[in-house]
Write a structure and sequence with these properties.
By secondary structure, the protein is an all-alpha fold. It has a domain of about 210 residues: Endonuclease III, domain 1, CATH 1.10.340. The protein contains 14 helices and no strands. Helix 4 packs across helix 5. Its cofactor is [4Fe-4S] cluster.
């Protein structure tokens, strides 16, 4: 009878053990608390490149934006003149005519800068002005015209006397031959009068198209383009043409402007070339038409320094004529003895 309780005890023990096993199987394994960060770590790592990329793009955009803003804010020393390449014919004509209008406002007193009282004096003075200044010619011609007032007088003069009178203008031997030759031609072929036709003028000794146009435009009122060294230099700087040939330049400019503008256009361009747009060092910083000039920057752009380069009345200096027109704003040039 003592073995029965032992059996019952064994049975009870087995039941308890079985219950524990059943409970253990039924209870799901608990996830480790450290597993969560481990599982999320790849996700965080995966997001990091995207965030870095966004930050880089944002930074680049900010830098680019700042650089653009700085570039826009920086003042440009050169006026904004954009010329399409090649510039259309219409655009060139409009720009050229605008330059002429603005020069007319700057130089309302533009005029021929040779002293003369009649066509003969203007013709001789223009021939003498080759390779020298109008000022030097104006300082020389008073004595010449006092000694030989007419073509007949000059044609009959002693060449050595004429050479001595015009010596200050340079190349005096060649110039003496020219002015005495044209005086003789006027005497023999034109009755001592200067002809008013281009075809007749260019047949005179020492007279080319430039000289003929000066005489026609200023002594006879016949419009003409005077292509001297200043005129040619400026129209090339302004990109009106790239030609070096005076006759081609004349033909092209005549085609851009109406005939009524030709003579005054020549005066304005020559005035500007002598006073501001110089050959070696243009006064770009003091130029009233810099905003229209494709060559801006070839010369001095600083306004104060450019102001010191101005000549004649623009620089407060005497002009080239001993007897300037009444409306000329500058002062007369000194005679040869005082020069």
């Amino acid at each position: 009878m003592e073995r029965v309780p032992a059996k019952k005890a064994t049975t009870a023990t087995k039941r308890v053990a079985a219950a524990k096993r059943t409970a253990k199987k039924a209870t799901p394994p608990q996830k480790s608390t450290t597993a969560k960060p481990t599982e999320k770590t790849p996700t965080a790592t995966k997001k990091t490149p995207t965030a870095t990329k966004k930050a880089t793009v944002t930074k680049k955009a900010t830098v680019t934006k700042k650089a653009t803003a700085t570039k826009k804010a920086a003042p440009s020393s050169k006026p904004a003149l954009k010329i399409s390449q090649p510039e259309s014919r219409l655009s060139l004509v409009r720009r050229a005519r605008r330059i002429n209008r603005e020069l007319a406002e700057v130089y309302p007193y533009a005029h021929p800068e040779l002293d003369f009282e009649n066509p003969f004096q203007l013709l001789v003075a223009t021939v003498l002005s080759a390779q020298t200044t109008d000022l030097r010619v104006n300082q020389t011609t008073p004595r010449l015209f006092a000694a030989y007032p007419t073509p007949e007088d000059l044609a009959a003069a002693n060449p050595e006397d004429v050479e001595e009178l015009i010596r200050p203008t340079g190349f005096f031997r060649a110039k003496t031959k020219s002015i005495m030759g044209l005086a003789a031609a006027l005497r023999d072929r034109h009755g001592g009068e200067v002809p008013g036709r281009l075809a007749d003028l260019v047949k005179l000794p020492g007279v080319g198209r430039k000289t003929a146009n000066v005489v026609l435009g200023n002594a006879f009122g016949v419009p003409g383009i005077t292509v001297d060294t200043h005129f040619g230099r400026l129209v090339r700087r302004w990109k009106w043409t790239d030609s070096e040939d005076p006759e081609k330049i004349e033909a092209l400019i005549c085609d851009i402007f109406p005939k009524s503008d030709w003579t005054m256009l020549s005066h304005r361009i020559i005035f500007h070339g002598r006073r501001i747009c110089h050959a070696r060092k243009p006064a770009c910083g003091a130029c009233p038409i810099a905003h229209l000039c494709p060559a801006y920057g070839e010369g001095e752009t600083d306004p104060e320094k450019a102001q010191k380069l101005l000549k004649y009345e623009k620089g407060g200096l005497p002009g080239q004529r001993l007897k300037p027109p009444p409306d000329y704003p500058g002062t007369a040039a000194p005679p040869l003895a005082a020069g």
